[in-house]
Amino acid sequence: xxxxxxxxxSRSMAFVLAGGRGSRLMELTDKRAKxxxxxxxxxxxxxxxxxxxxxxxxxxMAIATQYKAHSLIRHCQRGWSFFRAERNxxxxxxxxxxxxxxxxxxxxxxxxxxxxxxxxxxxDVDFVLILAGDHIYKMDYEVMLRQHVESGADVTxxxxxxxxxxxxxxxxxxxxxxxxxxxxxxxPKDPPGTPDDPNVxxxxxxxxxxxxxxxxxxxxxxxxxPNSKHDxxxxxxxxxxxxxxxxxHRFSDSxxxxxxDAPVYWRDVxxxxxxxxxxxxxxxxxxxxxLWDRQWPIWTYSESVPPAKFVHDEEDRRGTAVSSLVSxxxxxxxxxxxxxxxxxxxxxxxxxxxEGAVLLPYVNxxxxxxxxxxxxxxxxxxxxxxxxxxxxxxxxxxxxxxxGGVTLxxxxxxxxxxxx
Length: 420
What we know:
Layout lengths: L11 E6 L20 E2 L3 E2 L1 H11 L3 E6 L4 H10 L10 E6 L13 H6 L2 H7 L3 E6 L3 E2 L3 H11 L3 E9 L7 E5 L5 E6 L13 E12 H12 L8 H12 L2 E5 L15 E2 L4 H10 L27 E3 L1 E2 L2 E2 L1 E3 L2 E2 L4 E3 L2 E3 L2 E2 L4 E2 L4 E7 L4 E2 L4 E7 L4 E2 L4 E2 L3 H7 L1 E2 L5 E3 L1 H9 L1
Protein backbone atom coordinates (compact mmCIF):
# COMPACT_ATOMS: atom_id res chain seq x y z
CA UNK A 1 0.00 0.00 0.00
CA UNK A 2 1.39 3.38 -1.04
CA UNK A 3 1.78 5.99 1.68
CA UNK A 4 0.02 9.23 0.69
CA UNK A 5 2.37 12.11 -0.05
CA UNK A 6 1.80 15.05 2.29
CA UNK A 7 2.36 18.43 0.69
CA UNK A 8 4.87 20.48 2.64
CA UNK A 9 2.60 23.50 2.18
CA SER A 10 0.14 21.92 4.60
CA ARG A 11 2.87 22.10 7.27
CA SER A 12 3.84 25.67 6.42
CA MET A 13 2.72 29.24 6.94
CA ALA A 14 3.25 32.35 4.85
CA PHE A 15 4.42 35.48 6.66
CA VAL A 16 3.85 38.42 4.30
CA LEU A 17 5.80 41.63 4.88
CA ALA A 18 3.46 44.42 3.79
CA GLY A 19 4.47 47.41 5.87
CA GLY A 20 6.41 49.49 3.35
CA ARG A 21 5.23 52.71 1.79
CA GLY A 22 6.90 52.33 -1.59
CA SER A 23 7.88 55.99 -1.86
CA ARG A 24 9.01 55.68 -5.51
CA LEU A 25 5.34 55.36 -6.45
CA MET A 26 5.07 58.99 -5.38
CA GLU A 27 1.54 60.17 -4.68
CA LEU A 28 0.04 56.73 -5.37
CA THR A 29 1.19 55.77 -1.86
CA ASP A 30 0.18 58.97 -0.09
CA LYS A 31 -2.93 57.23 1.24
CA ARG A 32 -2.02 53.54 1.05
CA ALA A 33 0.94 51.20 1.45
CA LYS A 34 2.53 49.82 -1.72
CA UNK A 35 1.02 46.31 -1.27
CA UNK A 36 -2.46 47.94 -1.25
CA UNK A 37 -1.94 49.76 -4.56
CA UNK A 38 -4.37 48.66 -7.27
CA UNK A 39 -3.17 46.49 -10.16
CA UNK A 40 -4.58 44.79 -13.23
CA UNK A 41 -8.12 46.15 -13.31
CA UNK A 42 -9.55 44.65 -10.12
CA UNK A 43 -6.78 43.35 -7.84
CA UNK A 44 -4.27 44.82 -5.38
CA UNK A 45 -0.55 44.08 -5.46
CA UNK A 46 -0.68 41.98 -2.27
CA UNK A 47 -3.23 39.63 -3.87
CA UNK A 48 -0.43 38.00 -5.87
CA UNK A 49 1.61 36.82 -2.86
CA UNK A 50 -1.55 35.73 -1.02
CA UNK A 51 -2.96 33.94 -4.09
CA UNK A 52 0.33 32.15 -4.69
CA UNK A 53 0.27 30.91 -1.10
CA UNK A 54 -3.36 29.81 -1.31
CA UNK A 55 -2.92 28.10 -4.69
CA UNK A 56 0.22 26.37 -3.37
CA UNK A 57 -1.82 24.80 -0.58
CA UNK A 58 -0.85 27.10 2.31
CA UNK A 59 -3.80 27.80 4.59
CA UNK A 60 -2.03 29.68 7.39
CA MET A 61 -0.98 33.24 6.64
CA ALA A 62 -0.02 36.40 8.51
CA ILE A 63 0.34 39.90 7.10
CA ALA A 64 2.58 42.39 8.90
CA THR A 65 1.47 45.98 8.23
CA GLN A 66 2.82 49.35 9.31
CA TYR A 67 2.62 52.37 6.97
CA LYS A 68 -0.92 53.71 6.39
CA ALA A 69 -2.40 50.25 6.70
CA HIS A 70 -6.14 51.02 6.69
CA SER A 71 -6.69 50.48 2.95
CA LEU A 72 -4.71 47.23 3.06
CA ILE A 73 -6.45 45.92 6.18
CA ARG A 74 -9.88 46.76 4.79
CA HIS A 75 -9.09 45.00 1.52
CA CYS A 76 -7.90 41.85 3.32
CA GLN A 77 -10.96 41.85 5.58
CA ARG A 78 -13.28 42.12 2.58
CA GLY A 79 -11.45 39.89 0.12
CA TRP A 80 -9.64 37.35 2.27
CA SER A 81 -12.08 36.60 5.08
CA PHE A 82 -12.99 33.13 3.80
CA PHE A 83 -10.44 31.28 5.97
CA ARG A 84 -12.13 29.04 8.54
CA ALA A 85 -10.45 28.39 11.88
CA GLU A 86 -12.40 25.17 12.38
CA ARG A 87 -10.62 23.85 9.27
CA ASN A 88 -7.24 24.89 10.72
CA UNK A 89 -7.07 27.89 8.34
CA UNK A 90 -5.92 31.32 9.49
CA UNK A 91 -5.17 34.74 8.07
CA UNK A 92 -4.00 37.18 10.73
CA UNK A 93 -3.32 40.86 10.14
CA UNK A 94 -0.48 42.03 12.36
CA UNK A 95 -0.16 45.82 12.53
CA UNK A 96 2.86 47.22 14.33
CA UNK A 97 1.26 47.56 17.76
CA UNK A 98 4.05 48.55 20.15
CA UNK A 99 4.04 45.07 21.67
CA UNK A 100 7.62 45.37 22.92
CA UNK A 101 7.88 49.02 24.00
CA UNK A 102 5.89 52.19 23.49
CA UNK A 103 8.50 53.66 21.17
CA UNK A 104 9.29 50.47 19.23
CA UNK A 105 7.44 49.76 16.00
CA UNK A 106 8.73 47.17 13.53
CA UNK A 107 12.43 47.99 13.35
CA UNK A 108 13.13 45.85 10.29
CA UNK A 109 11.79 42.92 8.28
CA UNK A 110 13.15 40.33 10.71
CA UNK A 111 11.87 42.29 13.72
CA UNK A 112 8.37 42.14 12.23
CA UNK A 113 8.50 38.37 12.67
CA UNK A 114 10.32 38.52 16.00
CA UNK A 115 7.58 40.64 17.56
CA UNK A 116 5.02 38.01 16.53
CA UNK A 117 6.85 34.83 17.56
CA UNK A 118 4.01 33.87 19.88
CA UNK A 119 1.50 34.10 17.03
CA UNK A 120 3.65 31.97 14.71
CA UNK A 121 4.06 29.47 17.55
CA UNK A 122 0.28 29.20 17.80
CA UNK A 123 0.09 28.05 14.16
CA ASP A 124 2.06 24.89 15.01
CA VAL A 125 3.92 24.75 11.68
CA ASP A 126 7.22 23.20 10.62
CA PHE A 127 8.17 25.76 7.96
CA VAL A 128 7.83 29.51 7.55
CA LEU A 129 7.79 31.17 4.15
CA ILE A 130 8.76 34.86 4.32
CA LEU A 131 7.22 36.84 1.44
CA ALA A 132 7.39 40.40 0.20
CA GLY A 133 3.88 41.70 -0.36
CA ASP A 134 4.71 44.11 -3.17
CA HIS A 135 5.65 42.16 -6.31
CA ILE A 136 3.68 40.83 -9.28
CA TYR A 137 4.35 37.18 -10.11
CA LYS A 138 2.84 33.67 -10.04
CA MET A 139 4.81 31.00 -8.19
CA ASP A 140 4.22 27.52 -6.74
CA TYR A 141 5.81 27.73 -3.30
CA GLU A 142 5.51 23.94 -2.85
CA VAL A 143 8.39 23.51 -5.32
CA MET A 144 10.60 25.80 -3.25
CA LEU A 145 9.60 24.08 0.00
CA ARG A 146 10.57 20.68 -1.42
CA GLN A 147 13.96 21.96 -2.55
CA HIS A 148 14.50 23.35 0.96
CA VAL A 149 13.87 19.99 2.59
CA GLU A 150 15.75 17.91 0.01
CA SER A 151 18.85 20.13 0.14
CA GLY A 152 19.00 20.23 3.95
CA ALA A 153 19.33 24.01 3.84
CA ASP A 154 19.07 26.34 6.83
CA VAL A 155 17.48 28.89 4.50
CA THR A 156 16.39 28.73 0.87
CA UNK A 157 16.37 32.07 -0.96
CA UNK A 158 14.13 32.71 -3.96
CA UNK A 159 16.22 34.15 -6.80
CA UNK A 160 15.64 35.78 -10.17
CA UNK A 161 18.04 35.28 -13.03
CA UNK A 162 18.98 38.76 -14.33
CA UNK A 163 21.61 40.02 -16.79
CA UNK A 164 24.82 40.94 -14.96
CA UNK A 165 24.70 44.53 -16.18
CA UNK A 166 21.28 44.98 -14.51
CA UNK A 167 22.08 43.17 -11.26
CA UNK A 168 23.66 46.14 -9.46
CA UNK A 169 20.18 47.29 -8.45
CA UNK A 170 19.57 44.10 -6.41
CA UNK A 171 20.89 42.10 -3.53
CA UNK A 172 22.67 39.30 -5.39
CA UNK A 173 24.00 35.80 -4.70
CA UNK A 174 27.25 34.13 -5.59
CA UNK A 175 26.68 30.36 -5.70
CA UNK A 176 28.63 27.18 -6.26
CA UNK A 177 27.68 24.35 -8.61
CA UNK A 178 25.28 22.85 -6.03
CA UNK A 179 23.39 26.19 -5.73
CA UNK A 180 24.79 26.78 -2.26
CA UNK A 181 25.14 30.51 -1.64
CA UNK A 182 28.77 31.47 -0.99
CA UNK A 183 28.23 35.21 -0.59
CA UNK A 184 25.37 37.70 -0.43
CA UNK A 185 26.14 41.14 -1.87
CA UNK A 186 23.90 44.21 -1.60
CA UNK A 187 23.84 46.17 -4.91
CA PRO A 188 27.45 45.39 -5.94
CA LYS A 189 29.21 47.35 -8.67
CA ASP A 190 30.52 44.13 -10.26
CA PRO A 191 27.90 41.40 -9.71
CA PRO A 192 29.07 37.78 -9.86
CA GLY A 193 27.99 35.43 -12.63
CA THR A 194 26.69 31.91 -12.09
CA PRO A 195 28.69 28.67 -12.53
CA ASP A 196 26.69 27.73 -15.62
CA ASP A 197 26.48 31.22 -17.18
CA PRO A 198 28.89 34.07 -16.33
CA ASN A 199 26.62 36.61 -18.05
CA VAL A 200 23.75 36.31 -15.58
CA UNK A 201 23.41 36.89 -11.84
CA UNK A 202 21.01 35.55 -9.23
CA UNK A 203 19.13 38.37 -7.52
CA UNK A 204 17.12 37.99 -4.33
CA UNK A 205 13.32 38.08 -4.63
CA UNK A 206 12.89 38.71 -0.91
CA UNK A 207 11.39 35.22 -0.53
CA UNK A 208 12.86 32.91 2.12
CA UNK A 209 12.04 29.43 3.47
CA UNK A 210 13.10 28.42 6.99
CA UNK A 211 12.26 25.65 9.36
CA UNK A 212 10.43 27.45 12.17
CA UNK A 213 12.51 26.11 15.12
CA UNK A 214 15.71 27.26 13.38
CA UNK A 215 14.35 30.70 12.47
CA UNK A 216 12.77 31.18 15.88
CA UNK A 217 16.10 30.85 17.71
CA UNK A 218 17.88 32.97 15.10
CA UNK A 219 15.38 35.80 15.61
CA UNK A 220 15.73 35.67 19.39
CA UNK A 221 19.50 35.91 19.07
CA UNK A 222 19.23 38.73 16.51
CA UNK A 223 16.90 40.74 18.76
CA UNK A 224 19.63 40.82 21.41
CA UNK A 225 22.33 42.03 18.98
CA PRO A 226 22.73 45.82 19.37
CA ASN A 227 24.62 46.03 16.06
CA SER A 228 21.87 44.38 14.00
CA LYS A 229 19.35 46.29 11.91
CA HIS A 230 17.04 43.28 12.34
CA ASP A 231 16.62 42.82 8.61
CA UNK A 232 16.48 39.58 6.64
CA UNK A 233 18.50 40.79 3.66
CA UNK A 234 20.95 42.85 5.69
CA UNK A 235 21.53 40.63 8.74
CA UNK A 236 19.83 37.22 8.85
CA UNK A 237 20.70 35.88 5.38
CA UNK A 238 24.38 37.04 5.43
CA UNK A 239 24.77 35.43 8.87
CA UNK A 240 23.53 32.07 7.56
CA UNK A 241 25.71 32.35 4.46
CA UNK A 242 28.75 32.75 6.75
CA UNK A 243 27.87 30.21 9.42
CA UNK A 244 25.27 27.82 7.99
CA UNK A 245 23.88 26.51 4.74
CA UNK A 246 22.02 28.91 2.45
CA UNK A 247 20.73 27.60 -0.88
CA UNK A 248 19.42 29.51 -3.90
CA HIS A 249 16.10 28.57 -5.48
CA ARG A 250 15.70 29.68 -9.08
CA PHE A 251 12.33 31.25 -9.77
CA SER A 252 12.28 29.63 -13.21
CA ASP A 253 11.85 26.25 -11.45
CA SER A 254 8.58 27.28 -9.75
CA UNK A 255 7.17 30.07 -11.91
CA UNK A 256 3.57 29.35 -12.95
CA UNK A 257 3.23 30.01 -16.70
CA UNK A 258 0.33 29.83 -19.12
CA UNK A 259 2.37 27.69 -21.52
CA UNK A 260 5.67 25.79 -21.28
CA ASP A 261 7.47 28.26 -23.56
CA ALA A 262 6.07 31.40 -21.89
CA PRO A 263 8.68 33.71 -20.35
CA VAL A 264 9.30 33.89 -16.62
CA TYR A 265 7.23 36.80 -15.30
CA TRP A 266 8.16 38.85 -12.20
CA ARG A 267 7.72 42.59 -11.82
CA ASP A 268 8.57 45.09 -9.13
CA VAL A 269 6.04 47.82 -9.93
CA UNK A 270 7.81 50.15 -7.53
CA UNK A 271 8.01 53.22 -9.77
CA UNK A 272 5.25 55.04 -11.60
CA UNK A 273 6.82 54.09 -14.95
CA UNK A 274 7.04 50.40 -14.00
CA UNK A 275 3.50 50.45 -12.60
CA UNK A 276 2.11 52.05 -15.76
CA UNK A 277 3.97 49.67 -18.09
CA UNK A 278 3.00 46.49 -16.21
CA UNK A 279 -0.67 47.49 -16.34
CA UNK A 280 -0.55 48.55 -20.01
CA UNK A 281 1.27 45.31 -20.93
CA UNK A 282 -1.87 43.42 -19.90
CA UNK A 283 -3.55 44.92 -22.98
CA UNK A 284 -1.20 42.99 -25.30
CA UNK A 285 -2.71 40.34 -27.55
CA UNK A 286 -0.98 37.63 -25.48
CA UNK A 287 0.22 39.25 -22.25
CA UNK A 288 3.12 37.64 -20.42
CA UNK A 289 1.05 37.67 -17.22
CA UNK A 290 -2.03 35.46 -17.66
CA LEU A 291 -4.87 36.78 -15.49
CA TRP A 292 -7.33 34.46 -17.27
CA ASP A 293 -5.72 31.26 -15.97
CA ARG A 294 -8.40 29.35 -14.07
CA GLN A 295 -5.85 26.84 -12.79
CA TRP A 296 -3.92 29.50 -10.87
CA PRO A 297 -6.37 32.36 -10.24
CA ILE A 298 -5.53 35.63 -8.54
CA TRP A 299 -8.03 35.96 -5.72
CA THR A 300 -9.25 39.35 -4.56
CA TYR A 301 -12.16 41.35 -3.24
CA SER A 302 -14.67 41.96 -6.03
CA GLU A 303 -17.35 44.58 -5.75
CA SER A 304 -20.82 43.60 -6.90
CA VAL A 305 -21.19 45.80 -9.98
CA PRO A 306 -23.02 45.58 -13.32
CA PRO A 307 -21.16 44.78 -16.55
CA ALA A 308 -19.32 47.51 -18.41
CA LYS A 309 -21.51 49.55 -20.76
CA PHE A 310 -20.63 51.33 -24.03
CA VAL A 311 -23.05 53.94 -25.39
CA HIS A 312 -23.41 56.36 -28.34
CA ASP A 313 -22.62 55.57 -31.94
CA GLU A 314 -22.09 58.86 -33.72
CA GLU A 315 -19.12 60.35 -35.52
CA ASP A 316 -16.62 61.63 -32.87
CA ARG A 317 -18.99 60.40 -30.16
CA ARG A 318 -18.70 56.64 -30.15
CA GLY A 319 -18.14 54.52 -27.06
CA THR A 320 -15.28 52.21 -28.11
CA ALA A 321 -12.33 50.40 -26.56
CA VAL A 322 -9.54 48.79 -28.62
CA SER A 323 -6.72 46.68 -27.13
CA SER A 324 -7.93 47.65 -23.67
CA LEU A 325 -9.22 46.17 -20.42
CA VAL A 326 -12.47 47.64 -19.12
CA SER A 327 -13.66 46.46 -15.71
CA UNK A 328 -17.16 45.95 -14.36
CA UNK A 329 -19.26 48.97 -13.52
CA UNK A 330 -17.59 51.16 -16.17
CA UNK A 331 -19.71 53.36 -18.42
CA UNK A 332 -17.97 54.40 -21.64
CA UNK A 333 -20.20 57.15 -22.95
CA UNK A 334 -19.07 58.39 -26.34
CA UNK A 335 -15.37 58.02 -25.51
CA UNK A 336 -12.61 56.59 -27.70
CA UNK A 337 -10.29 54.31 -25.70
CA UNK A 338 -7.13 52.62 -26.98
CA UNK A 339 -4.35 50.64 -25.22
CA UNK A 340 -5.75 51.47 -21.80
CA UNK A 341 -6.77 49.78 -18.55
CA UNK A 342 -9.84 50.95 -16.64
CA UNK A 343 -10.56 49.76 -13.12
CA UNK A 344 -13.99 49.27 -11.57
CA UNK A 345 -16.66 51.98 -11.83
CA UNK A 346 -14.81 54.35 -14.17
CA UNK A 347 -17.13 56.69 -16.06
CA UNK A 348 -16.03 58.52 -19.21
CA UNK A 349 -18.05 61.13 -21.05
CA UNK A 350 -18.68 62.17 -24.64
CA UNK A 351 -15.96 63.32 -27.03
CA UNK A 352 -13.19 62.32 -24.62
CA UNK A 353 -10.24 60.14 -25.70
CA UNK A 354 -7.89 57.89 -23.75
CA GLU A 355 -4.67 56.32 -24.99
CA GLY A 356 -2.17 54.52 -22.79
CA ALA A 357 -4.29 55.40 -19.77
CA VAL A 358 -4.44 53.57 -16.43
CA LEU A 359 -7.51 54.76 -14.55
CA LEU A 360 -7.95 53.52 -10.97
CA PRO A 361 -11.48 52.92 -9.56
CA TYR A 362 -14.18 55.57 -9.55
CA VAL A 363 -12.45 58.00 -11.91
CA ASN A 364 -14.76 60.28 -13.90
CA UNK A 365 -13.49 61.74 -17.19
CA UNK A 366 -15.19 64.93 -18.36
CA UNK A 367 -16.30 65.74 -21.90
CA UNK A 368 -13.67 66.55 -24.53
CA UNK A 369 -10.80 65.53 -22.24
CA UNK A 370 -7.75 64.03 -23.99
CA UNK A 371 -5.48 61.84 -21.86
CA UNK A 372 -2.39 60.03 -23.10
CA UNK A 373 0.15 57.96 -21.13
CA UNK A 374 -1.36 58.75 -17.75
CA UNK A 375 -2.03 57.13 -14.37
CA UNK A 376 -5.12 58.58 -12.68
CA UNK A 377 -5.53 57.92 -8.95
CA UNK A 378 -8.74 56.57 -7.42
CA UNK A 379 -11.77 58.84 -7.42
CA UNK A 380 -10.25 61.66 -9.48
CA UNK A 381 -12.70 63.93 -11.33
CA UNK A 382 -11.07 64.89 -14.63
CA UNK A 383 -12.50 68.26 -15.72
CA UNK A 384 -13.91 68.91 -19.16
CA UNK A 385 -11.40 69.66 -21.94
CA UNK A 386 -8.35 68.75 -19.86
CA UNK A 387 -5.47 67.77 -22.18
CA UNK A 388 -2.60 65.72 -20.74
CA UNK A 389 0.20 63.92 -22.55
CA UNK A 390 0.71 66.32 -25.45
CA UNK A 391 2.79 69.07 -23.80
CA UNK A 392 5.13 67.67 -21.10
CA UNK A 393 6.29 71.10 -19.93
CA UNK A 394 2.72 72.26 -19.32
CA UNK A 395 1.82 68.95 -17.66
CA UNK A 396 4.80 69.25 -15.30
CA UNK A 397 3.50 72.56 -13.96
CA UNK A 398 0.59 70.79 -12.29
CA UNK A 399 1.15 67.04 -12.32
CA UNK A 400 3.89 64.47 -11.72
CA UNK A 401 5.65 63.70 -15.02
CA UNK A 402 8.10 60.79 -14.89
CA UNK A 403 11.37 60.26 -16.72
CA GLY A 404 9.51 57.83 -18.96
CA GLY A 405 6.93 60.44 -19.96
CA VAL A 406 4.05 59.09 -17.87
CA THR A 407 1.88 61.66 -16.08
CA LEU A 408 0.46 60.86 -12.64
CA UNK A 409 -2.68 62.79 -11.69
CA UNK A 410 -4.30 62.97 -8.26
CA UNK A 411 -7.28 64.99 -7.08
CA UNK A 412 -5.03 67.20 -4.93
CA UNK A 413 -3.01 68.12 -8.02
CA UNK A 414 -6.18 69.04 -9.93
CA UNK A 415 -7.48 71.07 -7.00
CA UNK A 416 -4.23 73.06 -6.86
CA UNK A 417 -4.45 73.60 -10.62
CA UNK A 418 -8.00 74.90 -10.31
CA UNK A 419 -7.01 77.16 -7.41
CA UNK A 420 -4.01 78.47 -9.31
